[in-house]
Amino acid sequence: MFKKFDSKDLVEPRVKTTPENVKEATEGLFQCKMTLPAAAKHCGMTQKEMKMIFWEYLKYNPISYEQVEQVT
After folding, report:
1. pLDDT value for 64
2. For residue 17, with 0-12 CB atoms within 10 Å meaning exposed, 13-18 middle and 19 or more buried, which class applies?
């Protein structure tokens, strides 16, 4: 009734943490295009590590809010 499966298929491959991945993830978090779990997975980090990296990003990078005009 149930197909046999290999337990190796349940584990996702480890993503290598690179500066490019971290930059994409922190910018995605800042612009609300990524969630914390998705950003951590994108970088190959734990959620706690990603939180610490993001707090450092907020501390040392200038605020870059885009002005949004309200149309009524």
Report:
1. 72
2. middle
Packed helices 19-30 and 36-43: angle between N→C axes, nearest 10 degrees: 170
16 SS3 class? coil
Calculate the alpha carbon distances from 13 to 21, 23, 42, 55 in Å: 16, 21, 11, 27
Q: Using N-to-C axis directions, what is the helix angle for 36-43 and 47-60, rounded to 10°? A: 100
33 and 25 in contact (C-beta within 8 Å)?
no
pTM of this prediction?
Answer: 0.72
Q: Average pLDDT for residues 17-45, to the nearest whole number? A: 94
